[in-house]
Amino acid sequence: MPPIPLRPARAAVVQDWFFAPGGSERCALELIHLLPASDVFTTFFDQIYRQEFEPSRLHTWPLQRILGPTARYRSLLPLYPLWFTMLDLRNRDLVISSSVAFSHAVRTAPSAIHVSYVYTPLRYAWDLDNYLAGSSLSALSRLGARTLRPVLQRWDRATAKRPDVIVAISETVRERVSRLWGRESEVIYPPVETASIPRSTTDDGYLLVAARMLAYRRIDLAVAAATQLSRELVVVGAGPEEQRLRAMAGATVRFLGTVDRATLVDLFSRCHAYVVPGIEDFGIAPVEAMAAGKPVVGFGSGGVAETVVDGVTGVLFDRQDVGSFCRAIERLDGMTFDPAAIRARAEMFDVAVFRSRWKELFARLGVDPVLYTST
Fold first, then answer.
1. Most CB contacts within 10 A, which of 51, 219, 302, 368?
2. What pLDDT digit, counting tens, does each position of 93-137 carry?
3. Cα–Cα distance, 138 to 8 (Å, whole number)
4. pLDDT digits over 128-174, tens only?
5. Which pLDDT score, from 0 to 100, does residue 131 have?
């Protein structure tokens, strides 16, 4: 009797959603490329990503077919935990959940390896007050979010037990995972494509920030400081706080909306400095600016405190208020920075380092090499 052929190893990458270009989406795409035969599971999928991988690999939830990638996806918050909790991937040998909020909850087989790459424990559950502070959400939305908070906290802590291995995007997130989930994790920093960003000595004088316009990002601090100092600030991105930010901005603040990659790289190359007014879980864009040889002005907490060396690759400030931000900019203006040293720091977080660290992890976990050695 001939031997029964073994079933080929199967992998899946799960991402909460694919919307406007952001850090978690870029990390998920890199993981998808690392596992070239994996299927991809998500909720909403924007067509700007359609050329990143073969359409046959993509599996979305039913609401994608009904609503498309709606800009009001946050209003569907109660549905995400239910869908991801029920998402059955027990026929996969390796599952990588790229978890902004919910995807770590997927169901996997006891014999499978489930690695969750965690950007932060569920922000809507554990950091809701900061998420809502200064936001433009309606009173009804705020009430709904606070009503759901204890339910989401219980759900998040319970489903955090499902992954076999947790990988945090920074030491900042590793501490949160330990404190909120009671789980140990290791750190693999997100991938930064430093090779695609040339080092530049051009300085057109403007400050730059590129981020989704969410209240916790504290872009309002950058807008207020630039307005007070009459400094040119270029703001890239979109989001629910855009109208409020535009209303408070002075004449020296420019809003460009969402831009393509080439335009963003050009903005990095010509800026005076990149600014980070909020607490980043990691912060890819500041490292990209450093790859261009540009210093960063950032709040000295979170991921930026791990990537920016104060006085060498930028300036850190310790209070989230306009006065501290203004003083940090003035301190920056009085310093001289070495673009080569700034870029060298950025290269420590290069995409090649990310790929290498993940392959090392796969090898340690005994993942079938056929799933990743072709990359």
1. 219
2. 999 999 999 999 999 999 999 999 999 999 888 877 666 666 666
3. 50
4. 766 666 666 667 666 766 778 888 999 999 999 999 999 999 999 99
5. 64
